[in-house]
Design a protein that fits this description.
Elements: E1 7-9, H1 11-19, E2 27-30, H2 34-39, E3 46-47, E4 67-70, H3 75-86, E5 92-95, H4 98-104, E6 109-111, E7 114-116, H5 124-127
Parallel strand pairs: 1-5, 2-3, 2-4, 4-5
Antiparallel strand pairs: 6-7
Length: about 150
């Protein structure tokens, strides 16, 4: 409700999109902190600061490029997706339930170009949304406003 202008995509829809070699692939933006991103990310994703986003990661891409933003549970991703929409990127979507659901469904994660099976849990409270085997041992993320 806080992001009424944001379009959402489900994890299964994104997985199908990634498997469709005939369809233009989206730019994947990881709206988590650098520490979270360094633990794991979706293959080919680029990290964007969820608190002070920059259009630098989209340099060279046309404004109508398909973009999928994700975060741990979806809130920070939705904030960045809303900001991108206001910045003139109309083909932006946020991954619903985001990275936590993605990994809980057994979908692939990477650390750089190598497969991995763990995700930064954000903090002890939100980390319970992850299956136990998927939770990386990592310090809590510093809480900040997610409004770019």
């Amino acid at each position: 409700r806080r992001f009424p202008d944001v379009r959402w995509i489900r994890t299964g829809e994104l997985a199908s999109w990634q498997e469709d070699s005939l369809r233009m692939q989206p730019v994947l933006l990881d709206a988590r902190t650098r520490a979270e991103f360094e633990v794991s990310q979706l293959k080919g994703a680029v990290q964007i600061d969820p608190y002070k986003p920059s259009l630098g990661s989209l340099a060279g891409f046309p404004k109508d490029t398909p973009i999928v933003v994700y975060s741990s549970a979806g809130y920070r991703g939705a904030g960045v997706a809303a900001w991108l929409g206001r910045s003139g990127y109309p083909n932006t979507q946020n991954l619903g339930s985001s990275l936590f659901q993605w990994v809980n469904e057994g979908r692939p994660l990477f650390r750089g170009d190598r497969p991995t099976a763990v995700v930064h849990p954000y903090d002890r409270k939100w980390g319970w949304l992850l299956g136990r085997d998927y939770r990386a041992e990592a310090p809590d993320v510093e809480r900040r406003s997610a409004a770019p």
